[in-house]
Amino acid sequence: MTRSASSEQSFRRHPAAWVPTLYFAEGIPFYIVNFLAIVCYKKMGVSNAVITAIISTLTLPWSLKPLWSPLLEMYKTKKFFVVAMELAGGLSLVLLSLSLNMPDFFRYSVAMLVVIGFCSATHDIAADGIYIAALTPKEQAAYIGPQGACYNLGRVFSTGALLWLSGFLTDRFARQHAAAPVVRAWMLVFAIVGLVLVALSLYHARILPRGGEERKSESVAQMAGTFGEVVISFFKKPHIFLLLVFIFLYRAGEGQVMKVGPLFLVSSRASGGLGLSSTEVGSIYFFVAWGVLLGSIAAGLFAAKLGLKRSLTWLLLMLTMPLFAYVYLSHALPTNLLVVTVALGVEQFGYGFGFVGIILLMMQEIAPGKFQTAHYAFANSLMNFGFIVPGAVSGWIQSKLGYQHFFIWTLFCALPALILSRFIPMHAGELAQQAPGAAA
User: Which residues make Cβ contacts (< 8 Å) with residue 393, sequence separation at least 6?
Assistant: First the structure.
């Protein structure tokens, strides 16, 4: 153990001081790209098919993480990358806000979203590396609920508070007869969230554990050797291919709903949507997104009591609740906002509860071993790729089926993972005995 690692162990900050803010910062840019940008482009006149295709493509960085995650095992510390990516992502959001006022705004805003995506994906690798390296297996299980809850608090902030703010500002600028009220509102929203990420980077520069000793590879050959060892050891894990297929299929239905759901809420009733305003959607999500927090915490307690093997199928079943909620909304088309809020509250609780299953599976069945950070990133990337592929074609499928039949279709997409969950082998008990931070 190096001197720096020893000194960090002797002065260990309580996980409650950094786990909530770390995963709140991790959640914000993901939902900026995957939700807020969807509504922004819809309000600025971009078609559903273009939005879902572009936004799904923009999530590629979260699936390409294996290409550079081993590099984080070779240089500096996980803390260095967390702080740097939060700062870069925050500044990129400010530049995104400025791009919206340009004549060719779509091209430039997409370019900035690409930068934000790569910063966020790199941040995810380093943040999860700190979590795995700095906490014991018992602490990892204890904080999996709060970790997921705070990640989804970023969802509350992005899909609730920021969306409501965009609608409020649009109405206010319109009443003041300001030019391009929609553009001005979204510019201000993205600038605000960018400054929030900058502030979090300054906090984490002071409070985060290092996530292991500082490293620096001495040569290209050494880097290539390390990279090869990381990849080869990953594919030598027990039942790895079955686990990877399951991870890919886990979000097949939910990935489509996450792209089309926001479009359904704001689409006109004549086209089969609910016809809600940005302010209405933001207000609803501000309340119902707390269901994600409750679902995440409840799922953590549920999985801790039953164990991953016994709880996995139930967790996955809960992930189908969002699909049923949208099936109901698309057929009933309620005008009462309370009814919509309750339905979306059920959706959010189910999402928060079910999502914990895939995170815990990757942490306990994929990550343990010499290269925890990189191997977790590999699995996490495949999970996101299983989110991108169905999401990319979801707009086209919806345009062919209509909203009602589309949401029924997503139920059938969820069946393969449900069936496969009964055959997933578990080795978490023996792997958990390995010392934490073996290769932080």
Answer: 52
Residue whose token pair is 């509250």: 345
pLDDT digits (tens, 9 = 90+) for 143-181: 777 777 788 788 778 878 898 899 899 989 988 887 788
Closest Cα to residue 254, out of 326, 153, 159?
A: 326
Q: Which residue has the tokens 């009220």?
A: 181
- Please say whether the dihedral angle defined by the alpha carbons of residues 385, 390, 394 and 400, taken in this order, is positive or negative: positive
Q: Which tokens hold the place of 7?
A: 């000194």
Q: Is the pLDDT of residue 340 over 80?
A: yes
Question: Is the CB of residue 148 less than 8 Å from the CB of residue 355?
Answer: yes
User: Rg (Cα) of the chain, in Å, rounded?
Assistant: 21
Residue 106: helix, strand or coil by DSSP? helix
Residues 6+ positions from 183 with CB-CB distance below 8 Å? 44, 100, 101, 105
- Cβ-contact 121, 61 below 8 angstroms: yes
Question: Which neighbouring-strand residues pair with 215?
Answer: 76
Hey, what domains does the chain have and what are their CATH numbers? 6-425 (1.20.1250.20)
So what's the pLDDT on residue 435?
Answer: 37
- Nearest one of 99, 98, 91, 119 to 33, comparing CA atoms: 119
- How far is C-alpha 435 from the geometric centre of its chain's CA atoms? 28
Residue 440 pLDDT grade (very low, low, confident, very high; cuts 50, 70, 90): very low
Phi and psi of 368, rounded to 5°? Answer: -55, 140
Side chain identity at residue 306, one-letter code: L
For residue 53, pLDDT beyond 60: yes
Tens digit of pLDDT for each residue in 180-229?
A: 889 999 999 999 999 999 999 999 999 888 765 555 555 556 666 767 77
